[in-house]
Amino acid sequence: MKTPANLRGLGIRELAGYLCGHLKREGLDAVLVGGACVSIYSSAEYESFDLDFVSFEEGRRIVEVLKKIGFRQTEGRHFGHPQTQYYAEFLNPPVAVGQQQLTRFKRLRTPLGFIKMLTPTDCVKDRLAAYLHWKDRQALQQAAMVASSQTVSWASLHQWAGKEGSLTVIADLKAAVAARKAK
Question: 114 with 127, same domain?
Fold first, then answer.
């Protein structure tokens, strides 16, 4: 994989690939979660400016590895780079959507490295969890973006919603997807 001379002009997908590739070469495993997954799956219809990763690595090691490519810790587990508007955040494990812990991920190839990330179905669950637990209507729209542009398992979504205690989120998602298609 090629390494960019500078990060200016990289989109979120390319930057995620670059970061994941660098982390992997340094022996660190991280999974991309959250809004960045929505940005990638929706072809930037939704624009996130943060790359949320879940990693089992200790914070000190993450700081050392990111420093090698010019990222600096801004606060807590947030890291910025002077050549990009995006920032990276490292969240504590496990990788989960609501009460469901995840162990299977998508590997997406980019010119700058492979991204280990939520599957489209789990990305939708992640956004639905925000909608369900925090009443975040924007998260419902993000879930609809992914569900209408990617192949998702509706059976898995139904099963997950039942375990989360709210099948109404699936009805809301279907309505949001239908509204998108009607435009």
Answer: no
